[in-house]
Predict the 3D structure of the following.
Amino acid sequence: MLTVRQFSGGRTARLALALSLIPALFAVIYLVRPWGITPNEFLVDLFRELVVPTLLPIVVLLPATAAFGNELEDGTLPYLLMKPVTRLRLAFGKYAAVLLVTVPALLVGVAAATLVASRGPDAEDLRRLFLAMAGASAAGAVLLGAVFLLVSLVVPRALLAGMIYIFAWESLLGRFLPGVQAVSSREYTLRVFNGLWDGDSAAASNAVMTMVVVAVVCLLLAVWRLRGIQIN
Amino acid sequence: MSASTGQYGEIFDRGYLHYGGPRLGQTHAVWALARYSMARALGIRRPWTAKIIPMLLYAAVAIPVLIAVGIRAFFPAFEFLDYAAFFGAIFLLVGIFVAMIAPEMMSSDRHDRLLPLYFSRPIGRSSYVVAKLLAAGLLTLSMSVVPAVVLWFGNGLLADEPVAALRDSLDDLGRIAVAGTMIAFYLGAIALMISSFTGRKSIAVGVIILGFVLSESLSLAISEALRDQPDLARWTFAISPSRTIAAMVGQLFDEPDLAADIPLNASLGVMAVVIAICCVVMFAWYRRRD
């Protein structure tokens, strides 16, 4: 499974890291010329309005759809399937690689933003906020990574489909039809964040449980789908 | 290579025959590449899975227009979708559209290592870039101008005196043409430039969409930070394509809320400068690479 890490180790990881550092850029702007809100409010706004709806999905989508997508595009997936490795291990290995690339990058990004913002005027203790943001990002990555690993095996141009889902479906329809929010990844990520932030651990763990279950189901479906691919 | 009379000469003769047909010249080559790029981006002559997303996007932009015309047919007084609202609403769709077509045009040539093949043909480096720009711009017009023209035509036909109404609203048509063309080439040039740097379509798609979304937040954050200097803060629109387009559309169709006090010349100028920068970067980038 080291080969799996190799693919993610290079450019994709750097891209994920670079994208994750964007919130820190916003924090720097805030730090240079703070506009009348406390660092606390600033970080919560940043996380709710920028990180969860846009940044997190894209950072996770890039490697998740590339994991099998690139193999399909280059036609190397059959070689991988010919190896004496079970499909289950293959799918989980790819999934682990995706998480290995995205979760640390997201954590570094959130930590950098928190660190920069904590130097702002009358900063409170931001440790709990940081933990809430970190936990929610990791949970979001766990969910989205699995879902889009599956999607990339079913749909060609999975990334584009994912983007349309994230931006058109979740942001536009979610605004008009509240029912959509019940199945929206963003909603669950925010629920984890709110749970951790308000100290309501039951709500957070509930949401995390749902996300993990969905992730596992998606991975199993991916294994099933891999079984259907012809090697010749 | 002159023909030798040896054993293998015959094969050589056939292989190195000169082209005797009509020579159609550079412009034809550019146009052929542009036409091919457009067809490929739309998934023409490719499996049906490549056609789904273009179809979906066209449907997404056509449905509101048809609904708007339909509503007008029954309730003439009811203005469901005016031009400013239309151009404001399609930013996201056009953004996704260019994020779909531009990587298909640029990145796959890189990924499949087709560039040396192109450049060893009559298509040179600059004409390659010109062809791609033309293809992206023209194709995006079908997303930005065509639906608006349909809306305009529908509005005209539903009036009491169709011919007179169409003639009277000719200036609206002009505005639609300006707004739609600028949007198409502006977003198209940005997307092409981004995707010319990578051979991976997926990365290009991600960076383009993220760029469109983030630049808006970034420009709002900077303008918030510069609140005490309104003159400077007003110019932050230039970093964000969505705000630039909103400003232009607001001025063109007389919607002060959208325009946000940004003069028309400023927003048009920003777009022209961005297009020029993208072109220069691409020309330089493709000239450098072997």
Chain A has a mean pLDDT of 79. Chain A is about 85% helix and 0% strand. Chain A touches chain B at residues 12, 15, 19, 22, 25-26, 29-30, 32-35, 49-50, 54-55, 58, 61-62, 65-66, 69-70, 73, 155-161, 163-164, 167-168, 172 (CB under 8 Å).
